[in-house]
Amino acid sequence: MAALLQPNMSSLQKGAGGERLVTPSPPCSPSLGDSCSIAPLTPSPSPRTVLRPRCVRPFSVVVAIDFGTTSSGYAFSFTHDPEAIHMMRRWEGGDPGVANQKSPTCLLLTPEQRFHSFGFAARDSYHDLDPEEAQHWLYFDKFKMKIHSTTDLTLETELEAVNGRKMRAIEVFAHALRFFREHALKEVKDQSSAVLEGGDVRWVITVPAVWRQPAKQFMREAAYLAGLVSPEAPEQLLIALEPEAASIYCRKLRLHQVIDLSSRPMANGLEPDGSRLFDSSFRQAREQLRRARHSRTFVVESGTGELWAEMQTGDRYIVADCGGGTVDLTVHQIEQPQGTLKELYKASGGPYGAVGVDLAFEAMLCQIFGADFIESFKAKRPAAWVDLTIAFEARKRTAAPGRPSALNISLPFSFIDFYKRHRGHSVETALRKSNVNILKWSSQGMLRMTPEAMNELFQPTISQIVQHIVALMQKPEVQGVRFLFLVGGFAESPMLQHAVQLAFGRSCRIIIPQDVGLTILKGAVLFGLDPTVVRVRRCPLTYGVGVLNRFVEGRHPRDKLLVKEGRRWCTDVLDRFVSVDQSVALGEVVRRSYTPARPGQRKIIINIYCSGSDDAVYITDPGVRKCGTITLDLPEPPPGGCARAGRREIRTTMQFGDTEIKVTAVDVVTSRSVRAAIDFLSN
């Protein structure tokens, strides 16, 4: 297509009075073709921000989906009664002794790749399949982690089921989101006397704050495919950042709804008298919460809660979202009296979630029984492997520092039998021959994990979390933090609580909401009701485009010199829209104007570059990469409406202050909107 930008061709030509030209993706120095696609009209050394008014859509209900690595759920609130948050119905099935208000993130598809079940139903159905039949069914578990770990994420990225079969990741996610859509809408309609249309529902999907733009766009595309909203109504779907949602909810907490670990003195994980484990208060609070869950409606404060009353303007706090797959850290400052939030440092974190403990357990099994056997067992007896992971999960939840007794984990009979057939000797013999002395064999057919063994499984993951918080607290923007909020499912672990209390209990107050596993879900509902509550965010990366600047001898390198039509240009200069860790207020925009290079051009494509540093000068510098494109579809200009077609101005507006980067454009001549899209999945 002639209108598209081609490699080794100039992307911009000089506008009147302008000294910058957008260049294509590297390699693009220093020869350029004669055919140009767009020209700049408003170049500027730094982004100029303009406050953009926000459009308010009268939604009737907000439905939030907390799509987690290990567990997921939904909640909703009607806009006429925003203080009441309704949790989803209790799930059938579940683990004994565990209060489940969320469902395991497990998906079961038929051999024909059709949806069968999700959550406990998927897990139980897969368990009941004949071992031979199970090899043909597709069972996905903890699949959200793939999106975080894939560096070249696209719409064609595949996920691998437990049995090794592969399927497009976006279809897997769409199946799960479609399940939540159907269940949530049915429950909303059951509680609403009004007839709800599709446009009456605002949807919110949570993602880790450390996810980059491609992963966020991936979730949006999956939501479109699942039918949550139409691509023609993107404002109907919000992407919420998980620690940010938790922070929004924590503003509403009353004192009786939190456990303050800092107020509990301890020594080596014990009470001062040495008689009781330090986590007794948390277990007591969790029991109170379990009794309260007969009611699925939670009432939140209309203003800010009592805990916030203790905070003064300018006080800083950290929210550590410790989930199944990732740990996300965000630093906020509350702005009184309006109660809005300001992000002080860009979100950080990594893959330090509870899944790390599961992987350590699997590594220990590989050490004892051999990695080849474990891989073979997972492939040939996938349902039994799932049973084993469920058994470990149940015991993992009960692990606590200072626990004197061992934990028993039942091995499925098929594991014991398969091992004997595979190796020719018993599981007990394998344990005796291994050097893993902290794991014993019970005559009742169980693995006995000593406290030392469980501590060894937890320690690497917990150490990474603590080290990351320590590093964050040393940043100048973060010093003086008064509160540390622990949220997310992993925050229920006494092992993690103990480590965090030991490391930070003397420097700040450590607060855990009683309903710690539901904090993000409730906060996501509140975010959907008022997306303006976070007023200022920090940009996680530097974003910009490549331009041509006037070549200055002695300042610009000679290999960047381009001579075109007698003028000397420096190629590949990074023209920044925003810089990493730059504060960007909600509603602020960056504006650029472009003009088509040829009459009749119907499309403009502009490459976007990003970098994790703020000192990049050229788009060819180390660490700078092409991360996306902006596409502008140009309508046919009216007859005689633009005498100088080459000077047709397309004014582009980019917004960096929301959870997603957004772009809009308008044709200045006709004042008509230009279809504009920003794509991070095409690379």
TL;DR?
By secondary structure, the chain is an alpha+beta fold. Helix content is 27%, strand content 29%.
What keywords describe this structure?
about 675 residues, alpha+beta, Nucleotidyltransferase, domain 5, 4 domains, 12-stranded antiparallel sheet, 8-stranded mixed sheet, 16 helices, globular, disordered N terminus
Would you kindly provide a written description of the structure presented here, covering whatever features stand out?
The chain has 683 residues and is of the alpha+beta class. It folds into four domains: 182 residues, Nucleotidyltransferase, domain 5, CATH 3.30.420; 155 residues, Nucleotidyltransferase, domain 5, CATH 3.30.420; 102 residues, no CATH class; 136 residues, Substrate Binding Domain Of DNAk, Chain A, domain 1. The protein has 16 helices and 35 strands. The strands form six sheets. Strands 1, 2, 3, 26, 27, 28, 30, 31, 32, 33, 34 and 35 form a twelve-stranded antiparallel sheet that branches. An eight-stranded mixed sheet has the order 15-24-23-17-18-19-25-29, with helices on both faces. Strands 4, 5, 6, 7, 13, 14 and 16 form a seven-stranded mixed sheet that branches. Helix 14 packs across helix 15. The longest helix has 23 residues. 43% of the residues are buried.
